[in-house]
Recover the amino acids of this structure.
């Protein structure tokens, strides 16, 4: 699966421009504790977090995460979106909660 597929299949709102859509999504990771994400997320993971400040982009870039997904329609700070565009990191928003996001990926074949 690729980041583009998240945009096309799941109807999540893409907050960034058409940036990072070519990246492969190799798995999902969910945590809101940034230090924990840094030590546990894997290359290519799509990261689900309620955090919306600019530091999430730095971590996604450092770890080569495929994209960031913000659940429950939480507002994302404008400077975070700007930095994500600069770093080629797609950020999605969805009204779904974290569990339902995982279900979408499971139903799409991600195991």
């Amino acid at each position: 699966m690729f980041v583009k597929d998240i945009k096309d299949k799941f109807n999540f709102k893409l907050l960034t421009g058409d940036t990072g859509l070519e990246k492969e999504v190799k798995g999902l990771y969910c945590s809101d504790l940034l230090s924990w994400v840094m030590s546990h997320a894997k290359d290519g993971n799509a990261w689900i977090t309620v955090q919306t400040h600019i530091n999430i982009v730095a971590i996604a870039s450092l770890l080569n995460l495929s994209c960031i997904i913000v659940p429950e329609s939480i507002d994302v700070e404008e400077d975070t979106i700007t930095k994500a565009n600069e770093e080629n990191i797609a950020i999605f928003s969805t009204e779904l909660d974290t569990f339902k996001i995982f279900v979408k990926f499971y139903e799409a074949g991600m195991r």
